[in-house]
Amino acid sequence: MSVLTRKLGQTVFPEILPAVLGFTAVAVAITIGFEESSYPFKVNTIMLSVLTTMLSFAVSLRTSSALERWNAGRQAWTVVSSASRSFASLVWLHVADTTLDAARQATVEAGSDEAEVESVKALIEKRTILNLLCAWSVATKHYVRGEPGPFYDDLYDLVKALPRYSFPSSVDDDSTPTREDLGGL
C-alpha cells in the first residue's frame, strides 16, 4: 500500500466519491435530456428556496457535529499533554540523581569517578523515561490517525534506542510500513 493511498484513505474522499459520481451522472443525464428535447425546463422558485433551505440546514448540522468531534479530540489531547507534563515534572524532581542505594552511596566519595558515573547513569535513565513519555503521546497521536509503525519523523528518534522485542505479534499485520516504504526517514 503506497503512502499516497494510505493518506487518501484517511480522508473523507473515499466516503463521498460514490455519492459525488452518482449525483454527477444524474446531473449529466438530466442536462443531456433537456438539451436534446424541446421541453422547456422550468423550476418553481418556491421549491428551489425550500430545497436550498433544507440543504443549508444539512450542511450546518454536518459542520457543527464535525466541530464538536474536533473539539472533543482537542480537549482529550490537552488532557494527554497536561498529564504528560505533570508526570515528566514528577520524574525529573523525584527520581534520584544517582543509581546507588543509600547504603552504597554513603561509602562512595562525593567527587569520585564512581559517583560521577552513577550520576550520569541516573541522568540517562531520567532522559529515557522522558523520551518514552513523549513517545507515548506521539504514538497515541499516530494510532488515532490510523498510522501504524514507529517510522515517523516525530516518533522514531524517541524510540530508536529501545531494544527490538522478539515476541510474536498476536495479529498478523502486513500493512505496517517499513522504513524503506516511507522513504528511509
TrEMBL record:
<dbReference type="GO" id="GO:0005886">
    <property type="term" value="C:plasma membrane"/>
</dbReference>
<keyword id="KW-0813">Transport</keyword>
<dbReference type="Pfam" id="PF25539">
    <property type="entry name" value="Bestrophin_2"/>
</dbReference>
<keyword id="KW-0406">Ion transport</keyword>
<feature type="transmembrane region" description="Helical">
    <location>
        <begin position="12"/>
        <end position="34"/>
    </location>
</feature>
<dbReference type="InterPro" id="IPR044669">
    <property type="entry name" value="YneE/VCCN1/2-like"/>
</dbReference>
<keyword id="KW-1133">Transmembrane helix</keyword>
<keyword id="KW-0472">Membrane</keyword>
<dbReference type="GO" id="GO:0005254">
    <property type="term" value="F:chloride channel activity"/>
</dbReference>
<keyword id="KW-1003">Cell membrane</keyword>
<protein>
    <submittedName>
        <fullName>Uncharacterized protein</fullName>
    </submittedName>
</protein>
<feature type="transmembrane region" description="Helical">
    <location>
        <begin position="46"/>
        <end position="64"/>
    </location>
</feature>
<keyword id="KW-0812">Transmembrane</keyword>
